[in-house]
Amino acid sequence: MSRAALLVLADGRFPAGGHAHSGGAEASVASGRVRCAADLAEFCLGRLHTAGLTAAALAAAAAAGLDPLVLDEAADARTPSPALRATARKLGRQMMRAARATWPSAELDALAAARPRGAHQPVVLGLAARAAGLGPEDAGHCVAYEVVSGPATAVVRLLSLDPFEATGVLARLAPEVDAVARRAALAAARAVRGGVDALPAASAPLLDVMAEGHAGWAVRLFAS
């Protein structure tokens, strides 16, 4: 395993398109649910342990060697919102471009050929981690951190929140990020033995509802 590869994959500057997405934060700010650093912490914690855990487990399973096409179908089944499915595949296309340029891999090539319109982003990220020599828990860490860092960065822009406060939120969430990555890796290990039904299917219905509304906005700062 390369610690440097893990840092590259988790870096917000990795050209995978995540900077254009708020992870539901824009709609939450507009609705008044996120107004300050304390609200941001609650939002991130809830997202991390629901949709975040599900995504982290999918990535960990891909890094563990499960069939990415089966995992892509499992991701579809775990994403009831059409808007979020479209977002996941759009991000997956961009992640695929970056990953294939950075860590060329026959497995990435095969998934790109099978899903030319994009596979779900966590599945692609898990394969990218595998190509980089990283393990399931590493892939889970990348997704879990992205799940909280994306909204934190977005809220800094949306609310002019002090970036020091936003970074403090992320630092205090670090033990939770670690815990979700571990749970994701354990779920992936169970899925290797028993199939994808062993992966979590935690959901956040309010995120789904807000994503559908956000997709219809005429003017928005973020794509999702």
Number of helices: 11
Cα distance spanning the termini: 33 Å
Low-confidence stretches: none
Average pLDDT score: 96
Element string (H = helix, E = strand)? HHHHHHHHHHH
Largest sheet: none
CA radius of gyration: 16 Å
User: In which range does the helix fraction lie?
Assistant: over 70%
The fraction of residues assigned to DSSP E strands is under 5%
How many runs of DSSP E, i.e. beta strands? Answer: 0
Strand-pairing-aware structural class: mainly alpha
Protein architecture, described:
With 224 residues, the protein is mostly helical. 71% of the residues lie in helices and 0% in strands. It has eleven helices and no strands. The radius of gyration is 16 Å and the shape is globular.
Describe the secondary-structure layout.
Layout: H1 3-10, H2 25-30, H3 37-63, H4 68-77, H5 82-102, H6 106-114, H7 121-131, H8 136-159, H9 163-172, H10 174-194, H11 205-215
Helix pairs in contact: 3-4, 3-7, 3-8, 3-9, 3-10, 5-7, 7-8, 8-9, 8-10
Sum up the structure in keywords.
mainly alpha
How would you summarize this macromolecular structure in one to three sentences?
By secondary structure, the protein is an all-alpha fold. It contains 11 helices and no strands. It is 71% helix and 0% strand.
